[in-house]
Amino acid sequence: MPRSSPLAPLLTRRALNRALLDRQLLLRRRRMTPLAAIERLVAMQSQIPQAPHYGLWSRLEGFRTEALDKLLTSRQAVRGTMIRCTLHLASARDCQALRPLLEPQMQRMAFSNAGKSIADIDPAALRAAGRAALADGPLTAVQLGERLQSLWPRHDATALARAIPLLEPLVQVPPRGLWRGSGQATLTTVADWLGEAVDPAATAEALVLRYLAGYGPASVADMQAWSGLTRLSAAFETLRPQLKTFVDEHGVELFDLPRAPRPDADTPAPVRFLPELDCALLAHADRARILDDSHRKAIYTKNGILPPTLLIDGFVAGTWKLEMAREQATLTLSPFAKPAKPDMRALEEEGAQLLAFAAAHCATHSIRFAQ
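^ that's the sequence the OP posted. Answer follows.
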């Protein structure tokens, strides 16, 4: 790993934690529009359609689900395949800016793993066929696969359909992704949905600055883990004269924006509930700044879905689950260890607010601690 100059200031694990919480809007809820918050984070993972609603609720004062729904229906925000070739929520302009930078990675991913079964198909021909299939309107993945299989009958329809979002910029259209939305994911092209597919002016250096604003201080390896991109050292070196450098407890060089907030390590951190796959937990190669190594196995599952987590003193301290059945909503908290009494009260207070936000339609709310 790159090593910093011995003169670079040291940032402890707790200092990095508080910096991350501040950048992630988790030290205190902010008065900020949902669109501004989404852009602050660059993108929010959205494989679980309603996860961004919970993520924004934990970060913003007075957040209402309708606010994000309106961004999606008005096409100011979109859900599509972006960072790490996974489904993310981003502003329309960031979706267009990110794609050119992620394109090489996506092209490779389209024909790797399950995509190996279609490796004999010309990528340009498959992309053109996918675009043509969607020209008449949005399609589900099954419908898209069926149309593509009519052209390549010896190939698996699912593999054909899965390759298209990696070859051609696509978005999932509402109602999928709305708070009360349901049904199968329906796809259309970014060009048709937004009027223009990509922003040709996007640069790796600009993305580095955006990443540091939302997730710094961070190493080159951290950003590569977050983005899925490689060979970012050159972009960091180009920016080095305008960045501030630090060193972590292991001697790894960290970069940051000079004027970015870096709160004192002893700054109080409130209890917070984070949704599945929250971006704060997936943004670094070294995630010790928010998740102790001893808890990694309890969090990272075999299927790759990160469960909803709860933060105590800024660090992942357990998981939570919200279940709704008819008129009853139950929030189950599963801390890794028995919380101190003040933390227990804080969990109950924050949990009650979460129930009021997510289950206002239920007549009865309850909070239980798993044994």
